[in-house]
Amino acid sequence: MEEYVVFTLSERKYAITLLNIVEILLPSSVYPIPNSAPNVLGLTNIRGNILPVLDIKPLLGEDGENGEVNGELTRHIWVNTGTEDIVVVVDKVNGIKRVSEDNLAEPPEDLAAGRRIRKVILLDNDLILVIDPLDLMG
Amino acid sequence: MNEYLPIFLQESYDYISLLNNNLVLLEQDPGNKQALAEVFRAAHTLKGMSATMGFQFLADATHQLESALQIYRDTHEPVDERAIELGFRVLDYVENQMKRIEANEPLEPFQENTSEAKYESQKDSSIYKDLSSFSLGAYEEEVVRAALEQGQKAAVLKVNLEQGVLMKGVRAFMVFKAIEDCGFEAISSEPDAESLEKEEFELQFSVLVVGNGDLESLKTKILRIAEVASVDVLEIDIKEHQLLENEPGLSKVIENVQSTEPGILSSGMEMSSGSVANVDVVESGQQYKKTTKNYIRVPEEHVNNLMSAISELVLEKAELELAIKTGNEDVLWSLYERLSRSINLAQGEITALRMTPLSFVFERFPRMMRDLSRDLGKQVRFIMEGGDTEIDRTIIDRLGDPLVHILRNAVDHGIERPEERIRAGKDPTGTVRLRAYHEGNNVYIVVEDDGAGIDSGKVLAKAVERGLVTADQAPLLSQEEVFSFLFLPGFSTSDTVSEVSGRGVGMDVLKNTVEELGGSVQVRSVLGKGTTVIMRLPLTMAIISALLVKVHGLILALPLSVVEEISNDVEAVKETPQGKVLLLRGELLPVYSVANLLNLPENEQNNHIVVIRNGQKKAALLVAETVGKQEIVIKPLKSRFVPRYVDGATLLGDGTISLVVNTSMLLEGHK
Hints:
The structure holds two protein chains of two kinds. Chain A is mostly beta strands. Chain A has helices spanning 57-60, 109-112; strands spanning 2-9, 12-17, 21-25, 40-46, 49-54, 75-80, 85-90, 92-99, 104-105, 117-123, 126-131. In chain A, 6% of the residues lie in helices and 49% in strands. The longest helix of chain A is centred in the middle third of the chain and has 4 residues, at 57-60. Chain B has a six-stranded mixed beta sheet with strand order 14-18-19-17-16-15. Chain B has a five-stranded mixed beta sheet with strand order 6-8-9-11-10. Chain B has a five-stranded mixed beta sheet with strand order 20-12-13-22-21.
């Protein structure tokens, strides 16, 4: 059994293992960094920790305007990728799910390509795409 | 005298807090002999220092404190509340006067009242009858006693000048000189030295002297001074002194004189003898200048280590010169290694010098908490732990106000009134604990109370009401998230919350201060059980001076070390086929628009010029606005998502994140 944080990006559900999640937060101010990569929205201050805020949609091949972060359910997820701390913006946090090995599957070839999907969770007729946080590092 | 004043002030403030803290201890436990002894030691040193500096009012007031407590030291009886109250009043008085000294204002005498009547009667009986024209202050009396005890002589000289004397001040000065030459010290005079210097006296003045010299030859010497008409020498003899000794406790006072370790100041001043206090003022005639310098006291060890690291560096510099001439690369590399080592050593020591124990801010809290709980009618046990935890000076300096704020909240809103506590089944005396400790690269400061706690439900309701969170989302928030609302500006100034918890007035300021220092703050609370505020602060900080500039609405920080000058003389910028240049005192500098360098739209007037220097290369940067110079704390940003021109980030006072720009990286590729 492993726990995952499940969230939504452009209507599709994704998951990251809870082990890599530091915190889920209401978005606070994001200060832009000029000349940074297009998917870097800027810096945010979480209790004195200054972290880069990323839009990971382009990375996953999802549509959606860069920086479309104003939805009411929008959350910041503080992720420790193993190499550094980042904040990713998600449209909505669905919750935390306990998933057994049986519900995990290899992703279909066409889905995985270019989308950095490692595994999929098949649960309650839902298809949730699992992201390896290290892959978020570009 | 002037040069000693800042040291005197600093030491005195230290002694005042020491006295305050020990009086608080005494108040809690009137039989605490150690605290009483500490009070005597500190009061005595403070008194000595004040007298040496010529602040007689301070010396007298401090003496009153001693006198009020004297009886308890002799009888070993628990100290009376009124004596402690007098003690606190004396300390408040002295502290106020110190501020007057700092502000270069004249001192006021200590307002005596009934509570020291006991001391007054004792003092009256000890005044020497034949000296009635010369009033012996508390301090003088004691000096005289000590002097007689050591077999020295003490006397009052009454000097009369001739009618029509031209330079009274100079004559007075010559009398003081004669006193010194004859092996005496002038302890005090009437009128005081300042008035003598300003010639604010008729023809007569008196001087109290003690010393080993011969009074008769002193008299002769003074009479030889021109325009001195007569001198009366009134010797204070041993009989009167014995009389004094019959009074209870006086011998103890004298013992105290000899056993007290002199403070830094008093030991330094003793060498130049008590007469300096008077004579020097006459000589210089200067007022204390209102210069405030900060002094830090540091362990000698660090200074020595720093010195040896510097001597290494000097040596290595000489070797480097030689090595460059020979051009031997191996030798150069090994020298480089040695230089790095020495520089690191020096850096480590200088960092260590900046470390200060937290007791520096903690020491004023016991008294504050005592006064606060009295004012609010609460019973509070205040416990401090970890005052010896060291932290960067810059942090210390800014930590005072936030801590005061948290402690106030704890007493004001945390701890309940005794009757409420009893009703809740708690000890009527509440506990506030201030704790500091190291962990990793951080210092934690924790303020804990066992009071009413914060009702998170009410906080949440308020947050929903203010539209900070929707009613559906509210139940999903963690406790921590709920309490984080308390840090929003103005959040709990609203009465619903403050009646229940009261926290939050200024909590946003606290949060900003701590975060600016590179730390974080967190609130935990259990309703009915108490509240804990946890501050995490970095042990040391990379602090630099920076110039804040604005470009396209963004505030950027340029390290002041690269900034040569700023100007808004856009006229001096000329267009050339190769781009813009700035003509600055005959020098042509390339001009870059920062907005342009950062690929930001140039839709505003960028007409402020910042001239920077990267190594040998100078350049002019155009920005929209220069905001000002500021000390900033750099937080390194080691992220692959942050461009190379960003050296780090800093939090400004309002919570804005500002990028710290590495100008040479910024210009790279544009030259």
